[in-house]
Amino acid sequence: MYPMDTIKTRMQMDQANPFRLAGIFGGVGGSLAGQVPYGVLTFGSYEMYKKSLLSQFPEVKPIFMYALAAVMGDLTGSGWLCPSEVVKQRMQAGMHGSTKDAAVSIWRSKGLVGFYEGYFGGVARDVPFRVAQLTSYEMTKNLYLRLKGRKLEEEKSKTRKRKSTAENRMELSSVEAAACGAICGTFSAAVTAPLDRIKTLLMTDSAAYGGSVASCASKIVREEGIRGLMTGVVPRVIYIAPSVVIFFVAYEQMQQRLRYF
Known about the structure:
By secondary structure, this protein is mainly alpha-helical.
């Protein structure tokens, strides 16, 4: 889904011909170097935080524990992700010829701080996105499994099947995980689109937008109106929703298999 992310970035920067094929995979190597460890840190810690919070605060509604675990998980991974995002977005914008050139240019001009340009803009986007994504997924999943459990109980009472048979089937299939992922992916991508544009502008030209989330948002609204905050929302949803579907299908299948070890 990376090409859709490139198109979205170009649209957010108001570039001419954002659908051009040249450079459509620009920065993909740096993105993978950032996204894979980020995924390990974020989702691995999320599962640990979630398990701990649910056991320590059983009287609190689970949705609040999912949200808090999502915040903590994303913050855990954010320090690793930001440098790769800065490099990736500059490559997508056509500002450098290679990932190496982008990294060297950033280092020479601003040093280590340059790799964390727009960090708070990234966190301001990623934390709400992760909260929306994981809480909506957990709630959708739990609701579906409850409905599935009722149906299985009805079938069991009619056919007199053993209870263990119904219990062993109380997991999401790949198709079911894809459906839940499509719902939460579309929702989370759409509601965080304004924050995504702010992050893109801060990472590619922070000085021109005041260097902060508030100043960047104010400039966009002042020059483009409220609609300017939603620039790139369509390619963002087209990019995020299928990628979330792919992710949660793999995520559920891997979790189910790891339970046997």
